[in-house]
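#lab-general

N.A. 3:47 PM
ok so I finally got the sequence cleaned up, no stray characters, all 303 residues accounted for. can someone with queue access submit it? mine expired

B.Y. 3:52 PM
send it over

N.A. 3:53 PM
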Amino acid sequence: MYLVNKYTEGFYYMLMPIKVYMLMPIKVFDRIAGGYSSLSKGFIIYLNAVSNPKLTSLINNLRILARQSRYPDNSNFRSLSIKQMLRKAAFYALFVFLASSVGLCILLRWAPAPTSAFMVYRHFEDLVDDGAYQSIKYSWIGAKKISGNASSAVIAAEDQRFFQHSGFDLHSIQSSIDVYMDGGRLRGASTISQQVAKNLFLTPSKSFVRKGLEVWFTLLIELLWSKERILTVYLNIAEFGDHLFGIEAASQHYFGVHADRISRSQAALLAATLPNPILLRAAQPSNYLLKRQNWILRQMQNQ
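B.Y. 4:20 PM
back already:
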């Protein structure tokens, strides 16, 4: 019945315009010939036969039977249509997400980031907790205006294999798993690339979906950006205090200097706060923070 439906449907719709379109050139031929030709008479007889109302009714009945054989229950047909619509909507949504994420990463390869997902999230928290808006200190600067001390400090503190891996430090991940399996505390093994992906595009929430998106954006920036660009973006969007983002804003806030004038000790202190800049405050460093600063300084000497 499916084949019947397929061909009768096509034949039915073909009959409607065929008489008009086929008679037009024949009538022109008749005008040239000066009367009805045998060709035109034959076509007219044929087309009148196939466009007979009884034949048309028969074709309609065949179409209805064919459709009923494919969809005996209208509810099944409607549910199938809904499933098809949902499938198409999901496909288009996935396509839009992939295309927009790739396009955004290409754009941010050169353009400064006007904000980040973490900054927007901080504003959201303010509205939920206090119902008030609190400004964020943030100032984007180019790579040439960032001291090499700042770059060395964050690499020593957060990702010493930054220039060796391709976004994921498998050695650190395995080491973290081994420590956890031996009864130790599960420590993070996120690379600088992963932190850029998370801070720039995602929220701090923890879920498998967010982790999957983090992997996707990490792969994108590793593919589309240079290591230097990843490091520059990281230093510009990293959180160094309450509503304080970026190395430039942090340098001016804590030390009264621009990011290109920051010293090794100052850079190490800022890098030491990165695991939790809300609790580990550079303005009032705890003994733990000072020990971490000294450890980072020693690691910087080995670079």
